[in-house]
Structures
1.
Amino acid sequence: MAPDTRHPDKLDRAVIFLGPPGAGKGTQAMELAKKYGVPHLSTGDMLREHVSKGTPLGAKAKPIMERGELVPDSLVLQMVAERIERQDCSHGFVFDGFPRTVVQAKYLGELLKHHGYKRPFVIHLVIDPSVLMRRLTGRRTCKVGGEIYNIYERPPKAEGICDKDGGELMQRPDDREEVIGPRLHAYEKQTAPLAAYYRRLGLLHDIDAAKSVDEVGRQVLQSVQSVRGAK
Ligand SMILES: [Zn+2]
């Protein structure tokens, strides 16, 4: 019998998403967390929350973020360690944007073990660079309501105009081909060792991310359910 994807059982571990910008990592991570009713832990959101609440960690991170620099590992790891100790994480959680490096991954592995969690489940969203390029360069955002379209995959009814509020659609400077090429290259360079690390540990699960958001979501869920309960 196919697993019931409407009412998945409890998640019993950490799920990690790896995938290039534009592969749908954030969307899939959020959806999976919602399906299981566990926290979706985006390190970017967590940092911004610390800053806005003025916590000691936020006070340290704020000037670094304002300079546009990367917050050092020590702060990110401290923040993650503190977060996963909270009660709402006891049945597992989904990471979005963490870990980014092998050093972070090793630390996370120790941390999870220390807290009695099973080994993490790592989802690797795999997508052909040319498909990704189309997806990213085709992206248009509404200037009024922020709705997102794609001129190739999900075009608005009228060219350049938002279906919902008639707002003008624009392309973010970040989504131009000359910016995306180097971005994808930088991602590949940073993530290839991380993916290799998790693959060696037998924790990496490849998912074809060129399919629709819903189809990818189904595959992610099926993949996670296939190991649930296992060590
Ligand atoms: Zn709009």
2.
Amino acid sequence: MTTQAPETVFSDIFKSNAWGSTESVSGAGSELTNTAQVIRELPHLLRELQVHRLLDVPCGDFNWMQHVDLTGIDYHGADIVDALVARNNERFGRPGRHFSRLDLLSDALPTVDLVFCRDCLFHFSHADAFRALHAVAASRSKWLLTTTFTYRSLPRNADIQTGGWTPINMEMAPFHLPPPRRLIVEGNVTESIIYATDDGSRQYPQSDRCLGLWLVDDVRDTLHKLGR
Ligand SMILES: C[S@@+](CC[C@H](N)C(=O)[O-])C[C@H]1O[C@@H](n2cnc3c(N)ncnc32)[C@H](O)[C@@H]1O
């Protein structure tokens, strides 16, 4: 078991570009080819929900988000990695768009209309994922939009060490969130997960990577019911 603090784990990933993308230090899932549908769809959802204050945690390197039409939205990007936050402020900061250092596992989150938490909980142990959900619930924000892999028949929700990766389905154990109110299908093109058939005779790629929308009240109720 690693004893490293999450800040060290993710700072090291940032410094060594451990997720291996030449385009984004946030990894292949944050490249433009893999986020084209999110870039197109997200502004429509934000408008429909009348989002004026958006917390993007974690914001990563803002590689694809810089291309999202956020007109009229006060954007706050936050990440645990200080150096990344400083670089984002330098490159992308402007009135109505700022970045700060914030640890989803230990800091209080501001109250916003929507907490956007893409590609994060799937890097966390179950205990840390629940910590993050509690932080969102405590923020008294209205909506949570977060990554969920919708298929149920494939391996999901392994209890990894924080800093690793596992596809997560937020409706399945141990999270048990209700069905999402909306889904954005990401249509990731280069990052399909390769599964083998049960008998191992054939491999097949799957990409059911989505963004699911929940009312934060529903997240809080679920945490309460689960007693976690
Ligand atoms: C795969 S990247 C995703 C970034 C962004 N959401 C995107 O879609 O491009 C994961 C990010 O989570 C950040 N992170 C990990 N643990 C965190 C925590 N406890 N609080 C805030 N950010 C965290 C990492 O530093 C990294 O930038």
3.
Amino acid sequence: MTRPARARIDRSALRHNYALARQMHGGRALAVIKANAYGHGAVPCAHALQDLVDGFAVAFVGEAMALREAGITAPILVLEGAFDTDDWLQAAERRLWMVVHQSRQLEQLSQLPPHCRYEKLWLKIDSGMHRAGFAPEDVAPAWAQLHALQRTDEVVLMTHFARADEPTEPMTPAQLATFQTCTQGLAAPISVSNSAGVLAWPDARADWARPGIMLYGSHPIGASASAPLQPVMTLQSEVFAERWIAPGETVGYGGRFVAPRRTRVGLVAMGYADGYPRTVADGTPVAVDGHVTQLIGRVSMDMLTIDLTDHPHAGPGSTVELWGPQISVDTVAKSAGTIAYELLCNTKRVSFEYL
Ligand SMILES: Cc1ncc(COP(=O)(O)O)c(C=O)c1O
């Protein structure tokens, strides 16, 4: 028997979520498929979306090249921009759109051979996150320098939000105000919204959006905000052994779970080496043959244990959903003290099936 740990990727859900993001945004939207499409498989996801999208966004040139080599012809924006001259050369050859977020990149650009041109260059502004981007006072000179280099027909002005997933925090309006002030008078399309921007900040819905996590069905703000996103990844496996234990006996490493009653323990072929987080608490929901039960005991490298006491029909061969349509990846992430982004990106060793 083949080990049954698998990730099933629902491409129609991905298409649905992209269409919803684009419709909510009301403008053009780049599907963010960096980090192997947040762990879902960049090439198959790009193929599934290609006829629908205005373009894609990835982190670095290598990720974009892999998509081009797989036959993806849609525009691709490189969010970290060039690391060196080689990146710029490859980007010109492969028709990539590049983010320019620091003066080092302007210098590199100035030293390229004359034939290196780019359909669009995206000038990134640090409106308060203090990660990447030109400081507000440097925007006008960078804009002038970029135009003087004559490497592109269009500059897009962009920024990135630090706290858009916190709808009552004043930081997002402050970032928007900073962005508006320092770009005043610069005639260019703009791009400010990630998923949380699209979902929660109508004022940020202008020109180009860059939704990522919402494409995969995870809601960055939580269940309170309503958008009918569909989960794309179902992480599932099977029960492959079972045993009864007496009250007071423990399960797994560290004896963390102590049985409060006679308990039937189901052993599931899924562990932290597959990407299921070791840090989840006892009681984290899982679904066995469509019924919700809970994780008991610490997650091991290759296995985890669940409570089958109240599920007499479940046993070896039963399907277990770790996250997907029945168990929200956001719930599991919360139990693990992290975010769905990290869980989805870390899925590995399991087999992937594309629906
Ligand atoms: C510059 C930029 N834009 C957009 C995104 C997509 O963000 P999200 O997945 O929260 O929608 C990211 C993700 O990290 C990013 O770095």
